[in-house]
Known about the structure:
This protein is of the alpha/beta class. Helices cover 47% and strands 16% of the residues. The model is unreliable at 760-791 (pLDDT under 50).
Amino acid sequence: MIEKNYQPADIESRMSRIWDESGAFKAGRPERKGAEPFTIVIPPPNVTGSLHMGHALNNTLQDILCRFERMRGRDVLWQPGTDHAGIATQMVVERQLMERQEPGRRDLGREKFLERVWQWKAESGGTIINQLKRLGASCDWSRERFTMDEGLSRAVVKVFVELHRQGLIYKDKRLVNWDPALVTAISDLEVQQVEVKGHLWYLRYPIEGKNFSPDDPTSFIVVATTRPETMLGDTGVAVNPDDERYTNLIGKNVILPLVGRKIPIVGDEISDPEKGSGAVKVTPAHDFTDFEIGKRHGLPQINVFDKEACLTLVDNEDYLRGLPEGASQLAEELNGLDRFVARKRIVARLEDFGFLEKIEPNVHMVPHGDRSNVVIEPYLTDQWYVDAKTLAAPAIAAVRSGATTFVPKNWEKTYFEWMENIQPWCISRQLWWGHQIPAWYGPDGKFFVAETEEEAVGNALGYYVEQEVITPEQGAEMARDASKREGFITRDEDVLDTWFSSGLWPFSTLGWPDETPEVQRYYPTNVLVTGWDIIFFWVARMMMLGIHFMEEAPFSTVYIHRLVRDEKGAKMSKSKGNVIDPLGVIDDYGADALRFALARGAAHSHDIKLSPQLVETNRNFATKLWNACRFAEMNGCAMPADFDPANAQETLNRWIAHETSRATREVTEAIEGYRFNDAANAMYRFVWNVYCDWYLELAKPVLTGEEGTAKAETRAMVAWARDEILKLLHPFMPFITEELWAVTAKRDGLLVLADWPRKAGALSDEQLASVVTTSPSDAVIPSVILALDAGEFSDPEAEAEIGWVVDLVTAIRSVRAEMNIAPSVLTPLVLAAASDESKARAQRWIDTVKRLARLADVSFADRAPEGAVQLLIRGEVAALPLKGVIDFAAERSRLEKEIGKADGDIKRVDAKLGNEKFVANAPEEIVEEEKEKREAALARKTKLQEALERLKRAS
RNA sequence: GGGCACGUAGCUCAGCGGGAGAGCACUACCUUGACAUGGUAGGGGUCACAGGUUCGAUCCCUGUCGUGCCCA
Length: 955
């Protein structure tokens, strides 16, 4: 029994439980052993995260695919889980410690702190997973994984060690993006370029050997910089070799103001004569461009900052080297200052001595850490790197060859662009939470990489014994007792970038490096679904590592969806306060409504603009479906076991079978093509505008009429079409459809595992195989094809008849509305000179048409009565005698307008047909169509003119 | 500066070579036995602009203008 009101909250909690208990989402269900697998790995959300609209969209789309394929009989594995989010998690736990006024991270020490992180994870790490369940995500929750799990960690170590052995992981001293607040390196992708209103400082650098005077331009060269404080680390000045102002200066030296360091002027193409003064200071240790310039010209790298981006000058050998007496005074004065305080001091000091020429306002992009939101410092450190360029080559090739394809295809260009310009990937992070790097250092800094401490230590001790640093006895002792080697052999403190482990996700979650049956069966996966904003995080990493270790790309398709924005098109952000919380929306309107709203908006070329109102609209759709099912129930609609829609006798029933078949085809093809919006919108139209608006309305007289075969068949068909609708809608609106499935009939099983309505002409792989194996000489048509032909239901005659009814009813309603005829007034209808076919149709539909068009009765006549409103329905006149009601002038102008339209059509077609080139060049069927159009328009015009004549006579 | 999109009804978007569409919003009427979270009807668009290709362009090409995003 269906409840009177649709209440999503009730249904959703109940269905979640039922699905969970049934094990419906589990991969490898025994009855699907022989089925083809369908695999999606979830792009692992951050364990600290909570569900935002982006997740809601991303997972709705994945769920549509999974439920669709599950209903098509595939063995679906949707692999869920979260990543450990090194920086974010560490920040969350540190904040928690602070709020609780407990000892901080450094006070606790590494081991204790990590215990706290695990404790936090146990308590709060399941948030987003539970939220995904509320959305209805049909993941195999029994297989949930976490990137710090034992197995996945083993995969990480193995990958690190192997890549290192292959020379694809190495240690290097390069500039990294350094976050001075979090005190760690971060990746390019964690850096946000933010437009900042800054300044351009023009500084005078005195030329060696000249007497510096601010009034003598030949005594100095002007450099422009956005970061004057870095001048302490300058080791050169670069000018463009083609810049005539400076060519004579190349090779000379300048004396660095305040510092006194002698640094060369070099010629380098990178210097843009148009920009600033045309000369730039070169600070190789603090700027990516300068680093390259420095390398080209052999300039030293002088690092003047510490890890927190405070000046470190005292005891800084690189800085002090070669400086004149008195330099240490400045060093002491500035030492320890924050970079922005230092900037002010240095600028003031430069100004005092006449070294500051001018300051211009300058809007420029400044890198910020996306977590800490502080300015990122290019910083010279030792870090571990992955040779991404080498790994990228096969990843590029996989897309070029079509082994992996992007949907929509144009994202491939972005992918190539990025992959072809990929930089070495810095994978070490100065954090505690994460996979600690499996490298051990000896006293001389030499490192030993191995999968286990035992192995690494063994190698190290062997080496140092051989080098006679220690005796064999000492070595044996240290090998036996870990405390003995403390301080001699130490493990690398750093951990790996979270993405290093996420990159392994498509196979580490399946049990790799163990040779599990799951790896065999579910790798490679079918599709990765992700937003374009993070294409490089997931796609690139998973592609590179997947191909390298599994010898096959991790997914054959990458579906890129757009972003969810607010109703005005602005990106949702906490600071703007325009965030729509998916859970709030689910509370208000239900998960099904949210999912359907997202799916209907998920077009390929646009971001989705979402508003609560839009979700409400889709909740209304759910209500509509609910009430349609209630209607069916109240009318005793049920499907006998042996019911076959293809054998229906009633035209109306054949028509809805025809329309259902068409909807099935549309929806199936749209999902197959990842056109979620087309699929959802096709269902919206079919349910509302076909099933509810016409089929149920037209069926009402039968359902409320006398018992008999027609009524029995209609009851069965109403139920059949309803079931097809529930199936077709299930991937989009799983909760309501499952509920309605359960309450509308006695079922063999859950809807989630029911068979997808067969698309006309589509063969399952199994069926295909059986067709293919049938030898061509075999005259027997495989039975499977016959069965499928029956499944493709088409009935143009039924379509024509119901179309006629629809047109008639619509036209009468329209004219009644125009003439302001009250609904309570029933009018007669006269069909003039009706064909036998129309007469027969009218007889069959008389009750329905009377009801829907509010008619008193229907009769036939040779011609329309005098003074009637005359409607043209599919070439024949239907008249409403409305003496006393009809406004002759208005009716005349209506008919004249109609005639005008017909005339316009004829003229347009005549223009075409009169054009020799058209007749000669256009395809025959188009010409034929145009001729038919002309005929039709002409016939319409003739009839309308007759009607007008009659009207004139009457008035 | 380089790249990718996108300018179609008030709004959000579909259509992408042969008669301009949907949803929402709006207007009018309707509490008719599934549904007012509803029904019926209606108004509303030189498909950004300019060229070109074509028998024919909202659709393909070029350019202009405008908008958004990504990378420098």
